[in-house]
Amino acid sequence: xxxxxxxxxxxxxxxxxxxxxxxxxxxxxxxxxxxxxxxxxxxxxxxxxxxxxxxxxxxxxxxxxxxxxxxxxxxxxxxxxxxxxxxxxxxxxxxxxxxxxxxxxxxxxxxxxxxxxxxxxxxxxxxxxxxxxxxxxxxxxxxxxxxxxxxxxxxxxxxxxxxxxxxxxxxxxxxxxxxxxxxxxxxxxxxxxxxxxxxxxxxxxxxxxxxxxxxxxxxxxxxxxxxxxxxxxxxxxxxxxxxxxxxxxxxxxxxxxxxxxxxxxxxxxxxxxxxxxxxxxxxxxxxxxxxxxxxxxxxxx
Amino acid sequence: xxxxxxxxxxxxxxxxxxxxxxxxxxxxxxxxxxxxxxxxxxxxxxxxxxxxxxxxxxxxxxxxxxxxxxxxxxxxxxxxxxxxxxxxxxxxxxxxxxxxxxxxxxxxxxxxxxxxxxxxxxxxxxxxxxxxxxxxxxxxxxxxxxxxxxxxxxxxxxxxxxxxxxxxxxxxxxxxxxxxxxxxxxxxxxxxxxxxxxxxxxxxxxxxxxxxxxxxxxxxxxxxxxxxxxxxxxxxxxxxxxxx
Lengths: 301, 244
Known about the structure:
Chain A is an alpha/beta fold.
């Protein structure tokens, strides 16, 4: 959607994927263009069957596109140098269930060519709060514990690109908060994250941008956080304001007692409030406005 | 070859209770055969062990979803498959080596008459090579199927070829008047049966009593071709996740 200045980051161009079964063709992805800039956290939402998992599979090189191309930092996504910099959390963690958590992570760490794998594994077991269960076989793990161990294995190589498929699925509220913290840490570290989730509130909290996938195409691309402008919503005391005066003061008419404006910098918010108060309006609340994902979901599906 | 994948495959096989139980049975039978200076029948059991460990070479990983985690790591697909092959083969060889030691030990320490150790050693070598071909085939069939269908394909193909050869030979011998046209064809072109026999012998080689260089070269070269095809198929294989 937005054109990148360079080949850096994730770039998907004209991606199509059609499944064939007994001579019947079923197009799932119908020409996807996506750019995710380095360090950006992008959410992928859409109804069931929209093609989110297929898109992620094509990006990761598990499925081969019928047409189009996927590159990460200018290289094919299945290039081994890219794989060294990629972490992936599947929706359902599957592995030999007889292996214990620590042994599984150490195997994954060696595969990922992690230097000093033992130390890295121990650090992540602690970080993801699952060290106590490290000696237990995976068969005894709950769904939430498997998700945590899945996140551990994805973070082993300190990846530059993190692909998360429903990472909070099966997690309790503590686990959900932990995942959110981890994503935030990865963002601060400069990692690029593509997050596939049905949890709209999670997407809203952690993502810079959201892509809405519907019927095999990206039907909307919405920025949730902007570095160049701050959208705010000011709630006014009902009956305390004159709509025309408010519109003249801040350039936007109130709807349902809420006036929405965009400012260039945080210092300008106080000026907006001052101008509203000068019209006689009672200001009840000022908050940063994010895209209403539920509304978007309803509109686009 | 990935040392990590090889070591993990070997470790997982030799620490599996099922593997240890079956290998223990093979060793027990080998000890008895050695003590009685009998034919090394344990080698047939060892062939089953090879099929058992070879079955898990790649097919089940498609179904379990394990492969998606592996493929997301910086491992070349062919390297992964060949390392799995090597790990499985060495695990099978390890069990066969222990059984052979017990067999030879029984012949040397318990049996008092003239020992058949040379023949035992030679047939064990043949079985070890046979294991190479069997594992290569299971790798190929695993790379084009899911779950344990690699074993099903292995046995069905073997049985189908054997039955075809037997049936065609019976028709040539005059059984079944309804197939007179076929008998005429097979008598006119005897190379038809010879070709099917050659295919069978190349894919499922019987271990000869006397192992010669030609047989060794045949098995190794065929196994190499099969492994090459397995790598080719595995590289072209899609690994969908979330499908199971």
